[in-house]
Amino acid sequence: MKLLSTTLERVKPSPTIAVTNKAAELKAAGRDIIGLGAGEPDFDTPQHIKDAAVVAIALGKTKYTAVDGIPELKQAICAKFKRDNGLDYVPAQVSVSSGGKQVLYNALMATLNEGDEVVIPAPYWVSYPDMVLLAGGTPVVAEASLQTGFKLTADQLEAAITPRTKWFLFNSPSNPTGAGYSRDELKALTDVLMRHPHVWVMSDDMYEHLAYDGFEFCTPVQVEPRLYDRTLTVNGVSKAYAMTGWRIGYAAGPQELIGAMRKVQSQSTSNPCSISQWAAVEALNGPHDFIAENNAAFVRRRNLVVEMLNAAEGVSCPVPEGAFYVYPSIAGLIGKTSPAGVKIVDDEAFATALLEETGVAVVFGAAFGLSPNFRVSYATSDAALKEACTRIQGFCAALR
Ligand SMILES: Cc1ncc(COP(=O)(O)O)c(C=O)c1O
Questions:
Q1: For 211, which of 25, 47, 65, 217 is 20 to 30 Å away at the CA?
Q2: Closest ligand 1 atom number to CA of residue 238
Q3: Judgement on whether residues 94 and 223 belong to the same structural domain of the protein
Q4: Which residues form the Aminotransferase class I/classII large domain (predicted)?
């Protein structure tokens, strides 16, 4: 009998984590590496949030908690949805997990049966299709294009929906493109969803607070309140509060679904870290002024990277609305050969040669379902970004 399950054999390990590991390996071997692969802010967790965790430890808040979150955190999450999104939820409609990733996983595990389809716009966050596969469902990828700023159109969504569609898994601002849907763009999609009452909506709002140039963030149920009874709105403290390591994510939605997610969590991990939950209470209820300061740095870095990448031969990079990623196209470089003799047949070959020959680590577009592109995370210092983009420019100019 073979060891591994057939379900697991359908799943691939996270390519973004693979790039991060490869870059770390080369660095350990003494190479001069600049990593633009990681999806986390380079800022430290704000001091008042750390202090809340220290207090929680001192007060002995170090035991098991309610499976899907302490009441104080659920209350803070309800207040957040009211404050930021104008949405009314009660604590029984809220679920807290070890990161946004577990929230999404719980929801898929709790709802998918064999053959159930999940519509995922591409480019997508690497984990979506594999999580759907792990949960026994079928990912249906709907490709958005560079021409629409990597945003799915109403017609594309309509074409992807079938009688087997269970979820539309939506993410704005997006990892990996940074694209943010305006209210009108979102309304076009929710109008389609109103015509298909069997389709549920999972909105991944992880980058809500990382939006620039006056971009107005909207979440689907805010734009179309009639979706309230079939929408799970997912969020977390990882990105905006620089708390990736604390592992707290949350969601709000219909009570039956939240109860089913609790059941999955109760038989897998139980509660998320008690100390992290108290830190998240402080994150959500405490001062938020540091977010604007961080965002000022992100905008500066985004502009720097977009400008320098557009100046690279054969590279074309749109200006995204949010998150901390850009997703340039390398259509102009396919078929060329690198100085070390590597043929750039696709974006994976490009990213591999770029890392080997210049020490710059990026993630290739095929990992996100749209090629030929690569993802740059600009959540790193201005100096590192400048040096990395200079190396990318040099690499592109040297291709023959
Ligand atoms: C779009 C998106 N959703 C969810 C997550 C998961 O966040 P967390 O670290 O809270 O699990 C990430 C993290 O990279 C992400 O980019």
A1: 47
A2: 10
A3: yes
A4: 32-392
Burial pattern 365-376, b for ≥16 Cβ within 10 A else e, equals bbbbbbbbbbbb
Helices and strands in the chain, H and E counts: 14, 12
Cα atoms found within 13 Å of the Cα of residue 192, Cβ hemisphere only: 19
Residue bearing tokens 């109008």: 191
- pLDDT one-digit tens code per residue, 132-151: 999 999 999 999 998 899 99
Tell whether ligand 1 has an atom less than 6 A from the beta carbon of residue 171: yes
Q: Is the pLDDT of residue 152 over 80?
A: yes
Q: Residue 282: CB within 6 Å of ligand 1?
A: no
Taking the C-alpha atoms of residue 136 and residue 379, their distance in angstroms, rounded to an integer, is: 34
The pTM (predicted TM-score) of the whole model is 0.97
- List the structure tokens of 292: 């604007």
**Residue 378 belongs to domain with CATH number:** 3.90.1150.10
> Which one of 14, 106, 120, 175 would you pick to mutate in the ligand 1 pocket, going by the greatest count of ligand atoms within 8 A of its CB?
175
Contact 167, 199 (CB under 8 A): yes
How does pLDDT run across 286-342, given as a tens digit for each residue? 999 999 999 999 999 999 999 999 999 999 999 999 999 999 999 999 999 999 999
Report the amino acid identity of residue 104.
L
Strand partners, 377: 325
